[in-house]
Structure formats: C-alpha cells, structure tokens
Amino acid sequence: MTRLIDPSLEKLSLIMSEMGDLSLQSFVLAIDSYIYGKNTVNQVRDISNEISKKYFQVADLTFEILLKYQPVADDFRLIRSSIEISYGFSRFGRYAYDITQVRDMFGDITECDKSWLVEVSSKVKAMIKDSVTYFAELDIRKAITIQQNEEFVDKLYKERLPMLINSNNTKCALAEALVLRYLERIADHAIFMSDAINYIVTGKHKLAKQLFPNDL
Amino acid sequence: MTTVFDTKQDNMNTGLEKTLPDEKNYKMIAENVSVYYDGIQSIKNVTMKFRERSVTSLIGPSGCGKTTFLRCLNRMHDMTKNARVEGRILLDGQDLYSKDVDPIYHRRKVGMVFQKPNPFPTMSIYDNVAAGLRLNGLRDKKILDEIVEDSLRMAYIWDEVKGNLKKPAMELSGGQQQRVCIARALAIQPEVLLMDEPASALDPIATQKIEETITELAKEFTIIIVTHNMQQAVRVSDYTGFMYLGDLIEFDETRNLFTQPKNELTAKYVKGQFG
Amino acid sequence: MMSSSNQKRAEYRTLFKQNVKGRLVVDKIVMGVVFGCVVVALVPLGSILLEVFKNGISALSIEFLTQTPGAIGSGEGGIGPAIQGSLIIIGMSSLIGVPIGIMSGIFLAEFGDNRLGRTIRFFNDVFMEFPSIILGIFAFLTIVLILGHFTLWAGAFALSLIMFPIVARTTEESLKLVPLTYREAGLALGLKKWVVTFRIVISAAKSGMLTGILLAVARIGGETAPLIMTVLGSSQFFSGFDAPMDALPLRIWRLSLLPYDSAQMQGWGAAVVLIVMILAINIGVRYYFSTKGKRSGLVSKIIGGKRK
Question: pTM for the complete prediction?
Fold first, then answer.
C-alpha cells in the first residue's frame, strides 16, 4: 500500500540520481577539455548550475518531508543523508567547472605533460560513478572500491605536488597543481558521500575516524 | 514557558549515562510473563526491564497485547474473569505475583492512569485527588492538604484549579480531568506510574501538556506508557518496546528503535507499512 | 473513468425514493399515532386524579386529618389514625426491606456474574410478581398465628417482602450503569473491593437507587391485602407494636364499603390524602438528597437531574 510519504521519497531519489548523472557528465567533459584542449567551459558551467539548483530543491523537499511525515527508520536515514549526498554531487559539478576554468585561464596548455592525468582521472570518474550507483543500489561493496580509489588519488596527490616545486615550466606546474587539488577534493567528497550512504544502510556514522584519526 | 523540546533536550543529554551498563538500575522487571484468556495465550512469554526514572513506551498495532501486558504490572487482571497470568513481575526485586504479596499493597506502589479520563463523578477536585488517601485511612487534614497540593503541582494543574478545589471534577475539560487523574494516582506516592494511552482522548494542546507532565515526572518516577502514537513515543520516551500479537519483537532505546530498528517487522510498523 | 463514476452516482441518486413530501406526511402521521397512544395512556390516569381530587377535596379539614373515625354513618370524625398508621408501617417496612434490598442489589451487581447470581436474580424477579395477598397470608401464618395476635411487625414483614425485590433490582441496575472505569480507577489506587463499591460506586449510583426505593415505597403505600391479614385495621391511634393498627388503604376500603354518603366522601378524602402523602415523600426525599452539595434548580432536583 502506498503511504503518503512514498511519492515524496521517490521524487527525492529521482532528483538525486539526476544530480548524480549530471555530475558524472560534467566531470567527463571537464577532463576532456583539459586533456584534449576542448573548450567546454560554458557547458560545464551550465551543468554545474543545474546541479546547484537541484541541490536547493533537495533541501526544500527534505525539510518538507520532515515537516509533513516525521519519517522514521530507513526513511529517516535516507532523509538525513540526502543533504550530504546532494551537497557532494553539487561539489562534483563545481570542481568540474573549476577544472575547465584552469584551461580557460591558462590558455594553451598543449605542451604540458598530461599522461599522469589519464589514470587518476579514470579512477576519479569511477569514484563518481560508484557514488551514484552506491546511492541507487545501496550495495555496500561499492564503499570499498570508493575507499580504494580515494587512497590512490590521495597517494598520487601527495607524490606529485612536491615534485612540481622543481618543475621548470611554471604554467604547467600551476595548472597541474590546481587540477591535482580539484581531483583530491572530488575524491574527498566522494568519501563523505560514501559514509553518508553507509549511514542509510547501517545507521552508523563512520566519519569521526577519518576526520580525526589522531583522536582515537 | 518550557516546551516539550526543552525538557527532551535534557533527557537526551542524560540518556547517555543511562545506557551505561548498570544492571542495578532496574526498578521493575517483567520476567517470562504470559497471559491466558479462557485458555488462549494472549501474551507470549514477554520479558522487559524498566530502568529507574525513565520513560518506557509500548507500541504496536491494536490488539497486540500492550494494554494487557501493562495491566499485568499492577495485577489488574486479578479482576478479570478467566484470566490467568504466569511469570514474575519484580518491583525492586520483589515478585508481585508471589503468594505472600498483597496485591492491594502493591497497587499503591504502582499507580495507573487510564485512557479516558475518569475522575470520580460525584467528587470534587480535592476529593478526587485525596480519594486514594482518605479511603485508605489517612484523615489528617493538614497532611491531606499538603499532599493534594503537591500532587496537583506535579500534574501541572495546580495553578489552574487552586482557586476552587471544591468544584466538581466533572466540570473540568478533558485535558484537565486527565491531569487530575494523574494527580490522583500520584497522591498515593507510587514509585512506578503506568499510563494507558493517556492522551488519546484529548485534543492536541491537552496532549502536549500531558507530554510535558510525563517528561517532568520522569525525573522522579519510573513511567511506562502505552501509546499508539509513534511520534508521541519518540518525543516522550527513553526506551521503546514494540509488541506484535502478544510477542515482544524489539526493545531498545527510543532513538535507536526509530532510526535503526533491528527487526524488519519493527521497521515496517514504525514506517506505517502495516497496522 | 471519472465521468462514468459520476454517471453511476447520478444513477444511484435517482434510485432513492423521491417522494419527500409524501414521506414527511408519513412522518407526521406516525408522530401523531405515537402521541395519541401516550394521550390514551395518560387520560385514564389524569381522569382518576381529577375524580379523586374532585370528590375528596371537600372532605378535607383539620378535623378530618387528625381525629379518629366517628360513629359509623355519622359523617363525623376523621382518618387521623389511618394517616399515622400508614406512615408508621411504611417506615417500618422500609427499615427492613430497604437495607436487605440494597445489599442484595450490591451482591448481584458486583459479585453476581455466575450461576448463583443468575439463580438469585431469577427468583428475585419471580418474587416481584407475587400476589401480595399470598405474602400477606404467609406473614399471617408465620407471625400472627404463632404469636396469637395481630402485630405491626407482621405487616412490616409482609410489606418488606414486596419492597425488597424492587429495591434489589433497581439497585443492581443502577450499579451496573456505573461505568467499569470508575471501579478500575478505585482499584488502581490500591483500594479494597468493598471500599470501591461502597464509597465510590454507590455514590455514583445514588440517584437511580433512590428512584428504586421511592418506587417501592409508593408501591407499598397502597397495598391493602397484606395489611388485612396482619394489621387488621382499627379505629384507634397507634397503641403498641402488638396491637392492630389502622392504615390509609384499609380505611379507604372500609369506608367505601359503607352505604352512607358521608362515608363515601370520607373515603374519597382518604384517597386524596394517600396520593398526596406518597407525592410528598417522593419530593421530600429527593429534595433532601439533592441539596447535599449540588447546584440549585428545584424542578431538576425533583425530577432527578440530568443523566451525564
């Protein structure tokens, strides 16, 4: 029997999965623009704005559901996590836009070495995709792959950034530094989202361990 | 004016202390309780433990046995024909159902408030609250006055009725009548207070006042309340027990039971997918 | 889809009887018939009262009310002893019958939900229908014959036998009308069962019980047959519990059998007195019980107040 809350929950899930698809799209476009020099700034900017709009929609919808239905159990956990997850998606879009802007600002970067980007961008792409699927299917194994990918990105970030100090091409070094930073941020947000999705499934928060590893 | 939210906040902060393992803090323990009506088992071997100065709510669909179970706790089933109760109910370690315990004595330790407000119709407010005392032999007017005022204060209704305690209790509104009944139950100085859907016959404002009263009383008494209103259970109680068809399906801290129920049936019920 | 369900509903509506005017007329006719039956029932009552007062009012005087009967046929004297006797015998019978009746009623209501209770109830109902002459004969055989003389106790005994089934029944019904929840509330306060019954339930059932008692009193106020066999009647005022005594029904009976007009008129007068006396007892008792703490309103007190 459909409860009063069910249509609203469906609408919520729909908006969030749309946000997920859009954020994946924006990321792919952004990376393409960097590697192949395509100008996709406007496209990605539009997509990012679209995602932001949906973020506010989600916020309104969540609070409306709380007001009307006082959800409990897994409904409640879904609502609770929706804000963090939708924020994550909006960040993906935003950082994608930032990456396209690098190419835009710095102009011609065809001479820079972009080989390092190929593997890490595919891993980050996988992380975004996994986040979307994890939310849709609530399959807890995705959390593990996201975790693994994040470790890779983190490692690369910590390796390459110091190397850039000794680079002789300032433009490329700065561009790479910025992109590395944005990738690291995307990966970080993916972990936040994964934890929020984990809360939906298990009812437990995991973040404390990550945020404050020195406290425990 | 304090609202339910303010006081609940206090409760939530101290809730953490109460969850620390301290077995001695059980005021009342119902052990392997079963109830048979005409040979048919309606409560199936239920065990529940109630901590001191806490509010426990019993939820479940109609007919699941929560009221039947509640009535075991003060031996109300002694009055019911064809009802047989098995198991032990321990109050401060002493079994209520043992042969050498006088049920009347224990009903004074375990008070009850009923679903529909039932102040004695021919008595004034004062007489109603004093009824349990007077009819049990207490005559001293000074002490009666003291206890009546104290009870009415605890029930959050002293200010509304202090002007005319001789007024017939039936002339009050439903919510006020219910609070007078609460005062009446408190007057005999119980240690545990049982409440059978105390606000279900009342309008929302009266309900809110009753909930505020319950939260205040929980600082001194152990309260067990049966409710069919899940939001009320969430607002008011520290622990919740979910019953279905005479079985206790799940019993946990309210926060946990409503956000991460361990049993699928519980999840279905609290989400409103049946019942 | 929507329009077809609208259509269906429109169809259904046409199926209802449309003759509203006709049905209003039927309504009025039925009301009229019901009202007519009530009138038919009340008319004899009213005419009796009218007849009695019309014929008897002229006999009333202080002398009539206080003096002993004069010589037969003289038209002098009064019914003083009869009034006194009636009051005494009603009082004595109530003293015996009411407490027993109330106790039985309490037993049946609170502890009577079993075989024994059902049996007692059955016999109670049978007893209520007993011809009063038989009760009178019974009292005669058991008390008067044994003692060898007429005595007021026999009369009170016979009348109490008529009273107590009525009181028992009405007490039981009134107690049963008190909702279970008040008993439960009392028990939940740790009160013993008899305390709950006597201090809480009875005060809630007071009004109904009183009605029952007054009904029984009115009933015995007019009983003649049992008194013939036990109290006999006399022309003197009360002269001891073991002597015959007069009572209004007996006096009315005696007077009505005499062929003198004056006696007949005195009979009517006695009838008026009897009716007024029963009425006065009713009103008086109700007034007394209702002034104990409730609000004012003379009419509502007499009629018995609202049922909440």
Answer: 0.80
